[in-house]
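User: For my dataset I need records formatted as: sequence, then structure tokens, nothing else. Please produce one.
Assistant:
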Amino acid sequence: MRNLELAIASLERQLETAVAATGSSLLQLHGIGSVLAAILLGRIGDIHRFPTAGHFAAYCGVAPLEASSGDVVRPRLGDRQLNAALYIMALSQVSSHPLGRAYYLHKQAEGHSKAEALRCLKRHLANIIYRCLRQDAARQTTAAVSGDTEPHRTPIARPPAARNARCNLHHGNRNSSKTNSTSSRSKRGESSSPRVERDGAPRHFGTVG
């Protein structure tokens, strides 16, 4: 048992190092730790593969496309590992982040069930992750053009697409992805109350707007 714990700790350190080497700002988002960040970076690959946030959300399975045939009605579920990662992030947002919980309660007040409100939150989080990764890509491109001496950030290699995306579904601990988002917000003097758009929904759920 002791050897197993040491092996797990060693793998966790390697994972943290690999995620840090990418220069990704995903860790600044509440509910994303090194494990979820690695899953997201590994499964997504080059964010430029997705021209819009809608394409990205469909790939994650939070904006499913209909794939019906005849009397059989079913949606395309997208990448199940990305969907599971967004689910874990959404649970963390609802339980311990004022913006995420405010959005969740706002959707319930509109008449959505708890499950539907959580799906809406997952869709919104997909937009935030997409925007975050696009900003990271733009920043790295700018640094390369300007001849920045900062070490090259190598994205985590994306595994080959599996025929059955249900395989190797990640089951993580919702409490394992906690970040220091709250402390970083307080250092910058940001208000703890949610910022609200015209429709009453919070604007963003982490340090990346």
